[in-house]
UniProtKB/TrEMBL annotation:
Pfam families: Acyl-CoA_dh_1, Acyl-CoA_dh_M, Acyl-CoA_dh_N. Residues 125-222 form the Acyl-CoA oxidase/dehydrogenase middle domain. SUPFAM superfamilies: Acyl-CoA dehydrogenase C-terminal domain-like (SSF47203), Acyl-CoA dehydrogenase NM domain-like (SSF56645). InterPro entries: Acyl-CoA_DH_CS, Acyl-CoA_Oxase/DH_mid-dom, Acyl-CoA_Oxase/DH_mid-dom_sf, AcylCo_DH-like_C, AcylCo_DH/oxidase_C, AcylCoA_DH/ox_N, AcylCoA_DH/ox_N_sf, AcylCoA_DH/oxidase_NM_dom_sf. Belongs to the acyl-CoA dehydrogenase family. One of its GO terms (molecular function) is flavin adenine dinucleotide binding. The lineage of its organism: Bacteria, Bacillati, Actinomycetota, Actinomycetes, Propionibacteriales. Its cofactor is FAD. This is Acyl-CoA dehydrogenase family protein. The keyword Oxidoreductase applies.
Length: 394
């Protein structure tokens, strides 16, 4: 039994790290300060093949040369220098490409995937609403068929990659009817950017992820062709839950990048900062905290890549879906909560300088909190893990 990545994955890691340190790291602080979304760099990530790691060759993807583990490696390495660009990549693939790749018709795939896989364009996925997140049954957005068109009315909140200059579409969940038991019928519908009645609200003023593109969306008598239904009618929520399992592992990988950044920054600072005649790293109070960061990085990485390997094995029919769902929740819960703790520790190691915006630990501190919220809160993960153990948790 081995817990090491393959030689090919490690070589891929080195290439992504070189890209991240050359194209992203020198600019991340300014993008964060200016709340700037660098579309040109996102397209360079696409040019490097990062958007196509889980896509077939026929759409410009990596095909057999790529896998979900490679995507997690890329997200970790990008997130190690900038969490905003890490979540941009994660959402571009997990929430933009994968729903169309997994549930789309051949026509939808042919229309949208080549540009999305190449990174020329981005797509978002609109599930969350002002009053409905984990409780998708509370969805208020509606879509009604009228003369061969879906008429969409409603609003979405906190949608990543939804309003950039290169966003081409957003897939939205909407009520399309009612089931026999009275529950809402939820379907997924593709809404192209620029469609009449589709309004992208101003970008949010967020605590972190300042260089990530995040907007509220509104739909007023927004009409799209009936053929824009993604997958089967009434299966929109189930489709999103399947998408979310993958996303939880990808968010865990983003958290691993955050923890590794905290470890790297703290280790370097502890060797440079002098006090009382020597570096602060010789003090047990500092050294022990950095040792804890190493433990967090190792355990979070192992859980994340175990889940990623299970996803790849499941794609080949060699792993159980239920076991993967449990592993995904465990990885997401542990890695994201560890990331929040890691940023607090790193800030403490830096002392007063850790409170100054000129040091990157501040940015990681602000960016980390949302990791415990997005793609299923820590509370939701605990609920899912408990259910996986057979507990009747409501």
């Amino acid at each position: 039994m081995t817990f090491e990545l393959s030689r090919e994955h490690e070589e891929f890691r080195r290439s992504v790290r070189e890209f991240a340190e050359a194209e992203i790291a020198p600019h991340a602080a300014k993008w964060d300060k200016d709340h700037h979304f660098p579309a040109d760099v996102v397209q360079k990530m696409g040019g490097l093949g990062l958007m196509g790691l889980t896509a077939p060759e026929e759409y410009g993807g990596a095909g057999e040369d790529g896998d979900f583990t490679s995507l997690c490696v890329a997200i970790e390495e990008i997130g190690r220098v900038d969490q905003s660009m890490g979540i941009t990549l994660e959402a571009a693939v997990g929430l933009g490409i994968n729903p169309i790749l997994t549930f789309g018709s051949q026509e939808q795939k042919d229309q949208w995937l080549p540009d999305l896989v190449s990174g020329r364009t981005l797509a978002g996925f609109g599930l969350t609403e002002p009053g409905a997140g984990s409780d998708a049954g509370a969805t208020r957005t509606k879509a009604v068929l009228d003369g061969g068109e879906w008429v969409v009315d409603g609003a979405k909140a906190f949608i990543t990659n939804s309003g950039s200059d290169i966003t081409s579409l957003v897939t939205v969940t909407a009520r399309t009817g009612e089931r026999e038991d009275g529950r809402p019928e939820i379907s997924a519908i593709v809404v192209p950017s620029g469609t009449d009645g589709f309004t992208v609200e101003p970008a949010y003023d967020k605590l972190g992820w300042h260089a990530s593109d995040t907007h509220g969306l509104s739909f007023t008598d927004c009409r799209v062709p009936e053929g824009n239904l993604l997958g089967d009618r009434g299966r929109g929520y189930a489709q999103f839950l399947a998408t979310l399992d993958d996303g939880r592992v990808a968010i865990a990988a983003l958290a691993v990048g955050c923890i590794q950044a905290c470890l790297d920054l703290s280790l370097a600072y502890a060797g440079e900062r002098q006090t009382m005649g020597g570096p602060i790293g010789r003090k047990q109070g500092v050294a022990f905290q950095i040792a804890d960061l190493q433990v967090m990085a190792e355990t979070s990485r192992l859980l994340t890549y175990k889940a990623a390997a299970m996803k790849d094995a499941m794609s080949n029919g060699r792993a159980d879906a239920k076991a993967f769902k449990q592993a995904a929740s465990i990885a997401k819960l542990h890695a994201t909560e560890s990331a929040v703790t890691a940023t607090r520790i790193a800030t403490q190691v830096f002392g007063g300088y850790g409170f100054m915006e000129e040091y990157p630990v501040v940015r990681f501190y602000r960016d980390a909190k949302v990791l415990e919220i997005g793609e299923g809160t820590s509370e939701v993960q605990r609920m899912l893990i408990a259910r996986g153990l057979g507990l009747p948790v409501e």
